[in-house]
UniProtKB/TrEMBL annotation:
Residues 2-114 form the CENP-V/GFA domain. InterPro entries: CENP-V/GFA (IPR006913), Mss4-like_sf (IPR011057). The keyword Zinc applies. Keywords: Lyase, Metal-binding, Zinc. The lineage of its organism: Bacteria, Pseudomonadati, Pseudomonadota, Alphaproteobacteria, Rhodobacterales. This is Aldehyde-activating protein. It comes from the Bacteria. It comes from Roseovarius indicus. One of its GO terms (molecular function) is carbon-sulfur lyase activity.
């Protein structure tokens, strides 16, 4: 099991299966919400138990993002039509046992940095 929490601890979550798809998102929304990049992994919704009052923001017509209303931690991303949920790698308790697999939305990355770690870029 993998566990995580927001900065203030009001929201905690448990992932009951092995997370998949550890990636770094470079899209404009993730950069604005996080201040730089958003690293996440995912699991089926049914395998993630969330405790606490998550505030959900409809960031587009196809997805929503979950935040802690007290400390503002950006914890979750969920497409409306999928049964998977993504969660912030930075919110996980260590050791995570995870390794980044890829970078996504790299065409939208900021002009102030380069990606040089050799991971696949999409």
């Amino acid at each position: 099991m993998t566990t995580g929490r927001c900065l203030c601890g009001d929201i905690t979550f448990t992932v009951k299966t092995k997370p998949t798809g550890a990636s770094v998102c470079h899209c404009g929304q993730c950069r604005k919400l996080s201040g730089h990049l958003w690293a996440s992994a995912q699991a089926p919704v049914a395998e993630v138990d969330i405790e606490g009052a998550v505030h959900w923001y409809a960031s587009s017509a196809t997805a929503k993002r979950g935040f802690c209303p007290r400390c503002g931690s950006f914890l979750f991303w969920k497409a409306h039509d999928e049964d998977m949920i993504s969660f912030a790698l930075g919110a996980l308790d260590e050791p995570t046992g995870l390794t980044l697999e890829k970078h996504i939305f790299t065409a939208d990355k900021g002009d102030y940095y380069d990606i040089k770690d050799g991971l696949p870029q999409k």
